[in-house]
Structures are given as C-alpha cells and as structure tokens.
Design goal:
Blueprint lengths: L10 E4 L14 H13 L4 E4 L10 H8 L7 E7 L5 H14 L7 E3 L4 H7 L7 H19 L7 E4 L4 E3 L9 E2 L4 E2 L16 E3 L7 H11 L2 E5 L3 H17 L8 E8 L4 H16 L5 E6 L2 H18 L12 H5 L7 H9 L1
Helix pairs in contact: 1-2, 1-9, 3-5, 5-6, 6-7, 8-9
C-alpha cells in the first residue's frame, strides 16, 4: 500500500526585506499589492508586513487593509505594536481587517522599547522588555475577549421590529489585569474567524526572551523562531510546545514556523531552498516556514516560480487553496465563543 501524501507545509513570506527600496513606489500600496498577488499565485499561507513606531514607511495595518479587497485567498498579517496602544483599538482594527478580507486576517504583536519612540507619544517612559511583553500578552487576551463580546448571531437586522442586535448576545468584557481594565463590549461584530490568529516572533534571544516565549506559548496560534539549523529550530519548537502544554493548551494548536532569511539570485538557489525546506520538514524540526527575503521584489518571483513548483511536485505544498480563511489554510479550528459555550454548558 502506498504511504499517504505528507501534509502540505505551512509557508509564509515577509514583505519587509532588508534591502534598501529601489524606488519610491515600493512604499506604496500598489507595490505591496503586486507582491501579495505574487505570493497568492504561489498559494502561500500568509504574508507578514513589519511595522514600528520609530521607522519611516506606511502603516502595515492600513496597507494590508487596502490590499485585502484586491486579493482573494492569502492570509494578511500586519505587525501591530502593542506598547503605547490601547487594546480596544487593536481589537477593533484587526476585526475590521478580518471583515474586509473575508476572514484572512492575522496579527503579529510587537513591542516598543526605546525612549525615542516613547517620546512620540509623551504619555509614559519606555517600558522594560519583560513588562512590555507581559503587556503584549495582556493585549492579546483583551482582544480575544472583545472579539467574543459579540456572539456570532448577535446581529438581528430586523427592519420590521427595528432591532439590530440581540442584547442577550452582547456581553461586557469586564477585564482587569496588570496593565488594563477594559469593560467592553467591542463596537465591531465578532470577526469571521472568531479570533484572527496571533502570529508571534518567539525567538526570544534578546532581553525579555523568556517572557516572549511564555507569551507565545500562552497566546500565539503561530510562533516564528529564527534558527540557522534544524537542531536549533527543533529545540525551540520543543520548548514552546512544552510551555503550551504546561499552560493547559493543546500543543498541537501551536504551529512553530522556522523564520529563515533568504537571498535568491538564480533558479539553482530556488531549488536549493526547496531542498532545505523539505529536509527540515522531513526531520520534524518545525511545522512550517516563514521566509524573509532580503529583497522581496527580486526574491519573491524566484520563490514562487522556482521553489514552489519543486515543493508542489513533491506533494509538500498545495496547488490551490482548499479553504477561504487563514485559519483554514493553517488547519486551525475556529474558536467557540466563550459566552455561547458557557450558556450551552449551563443548560
């Protein structure tokens, strides 16, 4: 009997390369749209777009909100800096992106640690790394609770009765933590995915590294780890899964992707990359890959036209999107609403 085909490898790509932009339009939405459409042609799971308070460039969330209506399947994951940002605004913005994209949004929490960035807001000093990441975890928790503040069928839209919402299915969040007290509910209905996936860089080698890994274990659906070899990637994956299990999570619900920097100059480079991906995946080192091209305008074409066909030929990558949402691409279930679940249990 023939062995079953391996599960397709989750594959994502970063759009914010390290190379200096060659032209001003690279910072425009049209330039990013071309890249996202190219990644979508390669049936990649999602793209990430970086952002930070202290660097020039467009707002990642705004760019991907513009890209969303002009694409159909690929997941869209902007970086959202949680420091100096209210969790209510984070939750409503990500929910809006999920609605605009018909269920393809994710988000990548990050923190701001410099005095220069804190001065842009003028509300408080820059936090210590541990505190900033604990706060980021709290933002993720508050966002999930705000998204659950509307049950899936809370909207009635009954013209005859004049009722828009079933108030019994709209809930206060009533959250009080170390950093925030949020009453809720959200002003945006529950997103199509229920809770857009959290994608978090859990490499954790700098200050606050242990806290980063703990936040990822508690809140991330996808953890990114920057590793130079499969042994380091496997060790990071084992650590994150063990932390998730200790927190009462199913470790199989936490995907760990190796975040690998790439530079592709010829078809040979693209094939070699496919070999590396296949080898690491066969060894069970990681669940998938997040590729960081030095120059997306150059590297992404070779990735899609060179690496992707090799992986597809070896049945390691899908040839089409079988689902419509980012959670479906990643094999992640849609979370049940906590309030609806509580009501079902109490009956």
């Amino acid at each position: 009997m023939a062995s079953p085909a391996p599960r397709p490898i989750p594959l994502a790509v970063a759009l914010d390369g390290t190379a200096r932009p060659a032209a001003p339009e690279r910072f425009g939405a049209s330039g990013y749209l071309r890249l996202v459409r190219l990644a979508e042609r390669g049936t990649l799971d999602f793209v990430t777009l970086g952002d930070a308070f202290g660097r020039p460039g467009p707002d990642a969330l705004a760019v991907l909100s513009r890209v969303a209506p002009a694409t159909t399947r690929i997941g869209l994951v902007p970086t959202v800096t949680t420091t100096h940002t209210e969790p209510f605004h984070v939750a409503t913005s990500i929910a809006t992106l999920d609605w605009v994209s018909a269920g393809r949004a994710g988000w990548r929490p990050d923190v701001s640690l410099t005095a220069a960035e804190a001065a842009l807001f003028g509300r408080r000093p820059a936090p210590a790394p541990d505190a900033a990441w604990r706060e980021a975890g709290e933002v993720a928790e508050v966002a999930a609770r705000l998204w659950d503040s509307w049950e899936d069928d809370a909207e009635i839209r009954d013209r005859a009765s004049g009722r828009f919402i079933d108030r019994d299915k709209l809930h206060h969040t009533d959250y009080t933590g170390e950093f925030f007290a949020v009453r809720g509910p959200s002003t945006v209905p529950r997103p199509p995915q229920g809770r857009p996936p959290v994608v978090l860089d859990a490499t954790g080698t700098g200050p606050g590294g242990a806290t980063v890994r703990q936040v990822a274990a508690a809140h991330a659906d996808v953890a990114l780890v920057r590793a130079q070899d499969p042994h380091a990637a496997s060790a990071a994956r084992d650590d994150l899964r063990a932390r998730a299990r200790a927190l009462g999570r199913d470790p199989d619900r936490l995907l760990v992707l190796a975040s690998v920097a790439i530079e592709l100059y010829a078809s040979g480079d693209a094939v070699a990359l496919a070999e590396l991906i296949g080898d690491w995946y066969a060894d069970g080192a990681v669940d998938g890959f997040h590729l960081r091209p030095a120059d997306p305008a150059r590297d992404l074409g070779l990735l899609v036209d060179g690496t992707v066909p090799v992986l597809q030929h070896r049945c390691l990558l899908r040839r089409f999107y079988p689902g419509a949402t980012l959670r479906e691409h990643l094999g992640l279930p849609r979370p049940a609403n906590r309030h609806a679940r509580t009501r079902e249990v109490s009956r």
